[in-house]
What does this fold into?
Amino acid sequence: MVGNLQRLCTFSLGEMLLGISVEQVQEVVLAQQTTRVPLAKQTVAGLINLRGQIVTAIDLRECLQLPPRSISDRPINVIVYTQHEPVSFIVDRVGDVLDIEPSTFAPPPETLDGPASQFITGAYKLDGQLLLLLDIMKIVEQVTRDHSPDH
It folds into this structure.
């Protein structure tokens, strides 16, 4: 936070503008070679090698059940901190870091359905667009739970 402003890193999936707290972001890197994980669900795009550290890459398009990105579009990895290890979220484009007035925060739109409704904690109204606040820990927990040995 800057003063009482909420500082968010923004990124896009298609026309959807999403944001997470900048404190959660370790770094942003261009598309990386991804090694598929056998038997993993589609939400896990695979593993990437980030300067010698193996990082799980989660495809946010798959998590939110959005259509696949065009093959010509090079995805971007947003590396985030989690409780145990960094995780990469694969997004279409990275936007700006925005300082947003918390008073503009509203509950998620009622029109939000499907998986997006469980991962979006609210929205900020910007000029002509909604910035949806993403709960990355819910996504990581679900992907981890879905891929635990008990399943």
About this structure: Helices lie at 60-63, 115-119, 136-146.
